[in-house]
Amino acid sequence: MNTSNFGLEPLRGKASAPAKTFILPDKCVSKHFGCAWGQGNKFTIYPRSQTVNKSTPKALDNRLFNVRQDVLLFTPILRKLVNESNGTFLSLQKAAEASKTNDNQVEFLKLSRQFRSIIRVCTEGLQEAASKEEDGLAKNSLQSYITIFYSIECIWHLCEILFIDNIPGDIVLPYLLEWVRFHFPCHEQTAAGLLEACERGSEENAEYWDTVVGMVVQGRVDVARALLKLHSAGESNEFKLVDNSLRSMPVYSVYGGISTGEFTISWKHWQAECRSKLSSRVLASQPNLELIMRIIIGDYTAFESIRSKYSSWFDILGGWVLFTAPWSRRHELGAAAAACAGMAPAPRSHLDDMVRALLEGDLHQVIHEVQQISDNGWFATHLTDILYHCGKLKVLDKHQTNVTSRLRDSLILEYGSLLMEHKSLWSVGLSYLASCPPEGPRRAELLLERMPVETEAKAMRVIAEAKKHGLTSVVSSVSRCVCARAQAGGRLGGALCWAARALVAGAARAARACLTQYAARAALPAQDLLLTAGSAMLLSDTLLFLGKYCDFHRLYKSREFKKAGQLLVSLITSKIAPDYFWETLLLDTLPLLESDEPVFTSNDTYEIMLCLELRSSSLEGEKADLMRLALARNLARTSLAEGDGTDEGGQ
Amino acid sequence: MPLDVQGTFVSQKINKIRWIAEDYVETKCFFTGSWDDDVNSVKVWTLESPHEEEEIEYPRQLSEYPVEGDVTQIKFTEKNKIAVSLSNGDVKVLEVSVYDKQSPLREIFHWKKMHNYGEQKCSCTSLDTLEGDIATIGEDGNVHILSGRRGEIMRTISGADSCSLHSICFIKHSEVITGNLRGHMKIWDLRSTENKPAASFLLAGDELAATCIINHPTQPHIVLAGSESGSLAVWDLRMNTFPTSLVNAHTAGVSEMQFHPENPHMLLTCSVSGELWDWNMEAMTKSSKDQNNQVTWMPLEDKKSMMVNSVIPPLSKAINTLHCDKGRILCGADNEAIYLVKNFKY
């Protein structure tokens, strides 16, 4: 079979079009070709001639094309992410199970942080790989992976703040500022450098004012004040005025002992004071200080004017909330997001949409957007799952029915099935599928049955995993499959052994094969197995018969003719022997009939005679005559001996 | 110091892991063999601290040797040579340079299709080594004794078993013990020319595979076998046929066992259920002679007081392999990770 892998170039065009077109290389297939689905997202294209009577066209080389989806998660670096996150996912399922009885928010937060650290480790791994990579194309794709996982972490963090973390008093501002500082660290290095140098006249640095403003916008008022002191005019009245205003800014804390109402009053008072300072025009000579004052009174135009200095509106979001409504609760951020996003007519990026949807609290939209990220559903699956378990996810369909659990299940099933495609990651995929009954285990059964099992070690592992998740049908179907393969290869011992594991009719088939092989070749296969087999022998009549027959051979070989004879007679009289084996069975009596010491009693002989006559068709004429003769002679001598009055006569 | 467990994800399911012994210094490097991947390989790793001052050591890959099929077993024939069995039926002897571990592994011998069904592929399921000799077994039920020094086949027991063999262990130079898919154990005398076992017995009544066999380092007549069901059996070969003890241990198959090289009373086991345990085997392997000069074993009721500890919290996937060197244990698992346990008390 000639198969080849090739890169498929998607046709660029309407990105939103649901169908993508791919061009096959060269003219490899003629007009007529067929297509067959393989396992998972794979199919094969093959040429198929529909004109039967014509000779095949000459220029066509009959090639097969395996077309498969290129799965990002199967690259070695990202396999680490897949495996590590699987561990956390499973702990999350356990925590969710436990939270049915007691509240487990802290545990969820811990696991969410764990997920974020996994993403971070993964990004670092990608960064390291990208720095080492020499090939431009590979480097580019690594860079794009970094962008993907970078935005994933950013969104996850915000999600954690807004929906998973248990924020005291719901006052989200400190967390939001932290998020901005963490993901959009602007001017941080310059600020640190300036503070370390600690020289007066730092305004010489071209970025001085941007840095000061940046620190104010990030809510790092202390840093901004320290920087202002480094200005050569830091001792002037104007600077002192601004410093004073920054210093006296009220900061809300849930544990501060004042109510939100009280805080709001003092905050408004402070801002009014700042506003009056500004309108008194004392700062007119220092436009930069004036800008800072305008920012801290929450002046929209001031924010608008600095927006162009930042690459995105996320940078100023923290500042905007800080200086307009520091008492904002989690669900009150939508307006702030809209205000910040509207400051500059920047093209909306995907990240924008996700953050907007998050701040508006529209989780359905968030998940919809997250699904557009090309990470093969890793993020959507894990995020939805954790939000679902935290009880924060409520998705209603157009009929207003709650479809949250269906959404979560469908994402997990999709992700699990995807992983099942991979040769090594199948066990990870299985644990996802197993976590959403009843649909998941059913899918797992179908997928596991179709998985290639090349060695017994793999078969045993598949069986162990299936047992763990209670998929009994897989246990027997895999065993049956290995059994059938062993039998096809003529390895009857292996076939018997696997048949016993499958606990089904396969045993009868394998046993039959053993008997026919013996009847044909006169060597009983797998004796070591049959002689030590235990309860497995009871699986089928044929197998039981085979075991007993094997035991007969053992007794015969060890010259225990009496016992062997008894066993043989019981095998004959029980009539469980298959038709094709009667000849062998009857002929086996011959040497015992002819032995020096009589082995069979007269009753036994009658039984054998009866069977011989009933089954006369199974023996040829000559052999049957020989048998009859031997039986008659044995009957004669046993009758005589029994007639002597020995104990046997009475039986 | 407290026990320290540290996992590293390596993007391949690890089937075998082995420390590379060092003279006079602490071991730093180890081999891994992977399985169940598109391309499997034998890799050499070293432990490194990325930042000088930090205590944490991370494994870093030094070299990679791709193989066909799964790596089913790795055992040392000499200090720097390993015998590797593969699921395509091949057996290889590979050498790692003593001075430069970063240089690629060198192939010394390669027995192609050592185990086969004629033309068809057949897995070489395991091997054991003893002073340069290699005993290999396969799904075809054959046993081969190879010389790891001269590269020749010294003896073949064909049809040693009618079903597939899954574990083997050298008892002494002239004797090996094999375990098959049904837990049927056979002892083979390599000096005899007959293809008949010197003794045979069953592991347990459940007819499940014997997944690993080892013998006691100081009392060679004591043999231990792990079963696919997770139980552990101990035999005294001076009175075989029945295990002296059969303990239900792990919830799924025992994948590998090792007696601690420094403390023969300590046994380490790992399992398909993701557990890594240490056992105090002193009571289980100790026999005494009673007044009639009969060997007696630990009474049954004492087994309850056996000392078994879980070394690491159970994983969600199978632990396939372990190797212990002094206070440090390496594990390889099906979640594509390597675990290093440090400060283990023995």
Question: What can you tell me about this protein's structure?
Answer:
The complex is a heterodimer of chains A (about 650) and B (about 350). Chain A has helices spanning about 75-100, 105-130, 135-165, 175-185, 190-195, 210-215, 220-230, 235-245, 260-280, 285-295, 300-305, 315-325, 335-340, 350-360, 365-370, 380-390, 405-420, 425-435, 440-450, 455-470, 470-490, 490-500, 505-520, 525-530, 540-555, 560-575, 580-595, 600-615, 620-645; strands spanning about 5, 35, 40-45, 65-70. Chain A has about 650 residues and is an all-alpha fold. In chain A, strands 1-4-3-2 form a 4-stranded mixed sheet, with no helix packed on it. In chain A, α14 packs antiparallel against α15, α17 (about 405-420) packs parallel to α19 and α25 packs antiparallel against α26 (about 560-575). Chain A is elongated. Chain A starts with a strand and ends in an 8-residue tail after the last helix. Chain B has about 350 residues and is mainly beta. Chain B has one helix at about 280-285, and strands at about 5-10, 15-20, 30-35, 40-50, 60-65, 70-80, 80-85, 90-95, 105-110, 115, 120, 125-130, 135-140, 145, 155, 165-170, 175-180, 185-190, 200, 210-215, 220-225, 230-235, 245-250, 255-260, 265-270, 275-280, 290, 295, 305-310, 320-325, 330-335, 335-340. In chain B, a hairpin with a 5-residue loop joins β14 (about 145) and β15 (about 155). Chain B is globular. Chains A and B meet through α1, α18, α20, α22 and α24 of A and β11 of B. Chain B: One of its GO terms (cellular component) is nuclear pore outer ring. Chain B: This is Nucleoporin Nup43. Chain B: Keywords: Nucleus, Repeat, WD repeat.
How is the secondary structure organized here?
The complex is a heterodimer of chains A (651) and B (346).
Chain A: E1 3-4, E2 33-37, E3 42-47, E4 64-68, H1 76-99, H2 105-132, H3 136-164, H4 173-183, H5 188-197, H6 208-217, H7 221-229, H8 237-247, H9 260-279, H10 287-296, H11 300-307, H12 314-324, H13 334-341, H14 350-359, H15 363-370, H16 378-389, H17 404-420, H18 426-434, H19 439-449, H20 456-468, H21 472-488, H22 492-502, H23 506-521, H24 527-532, H25 541-557, H26 561-574, H27 582-593, H28 602-614, H29 621-643
Parallel strand pairs in A: 1-4
Antiparallel strand pairs in A: 2-3, 3-4
Helix pairs in contact in A: 1-2, 1-16, 2-3, 3-4, 3-14, 3-16, 4-12, 5-6, 6-7, 6-10, 7-8, 8-10, 9-10, 12-13, 13-14, 14-15, 16-17, 17-18, 17-19, 18-19, 19-21, 20-21, 21-22, 22-23, 23-25, 25-26, 26-27, 26-28, 27-29, 28-29
Chain B: E1 4-9, E2 13-19, E3 29-35, E4 40-48, E5 58-67, E6 71-78, E7 81-86, E8 91-95, E9 106-111, E10 116-117, E11 120-121, E12 124-130, E13 133-138, E14 143-147, E15 153-157, E16 165-172, E17 175-180, E18 184-189, E19 199-202, E20 210-215, E21 222-227, E22 231-236, E23 245-248, E24 254-259, E25 266-271, E26 276-280, H1 282-285, E27 288-289, E28 295-296, E29 307-312, E30 319-325, E31 328-333, E32 337-342
Antiparallel strand pairs in B: 1-32, 2-3, 3-4, 4-5, 6-7, 7-8, 8-9, 10-11, 12-13, 13-14, 14-15, 16-17, 17-18, 18-19, 20-21, 21-22, 22-23, 24-25, 25-26, 26-29, 27-28, 30-31, 31-32
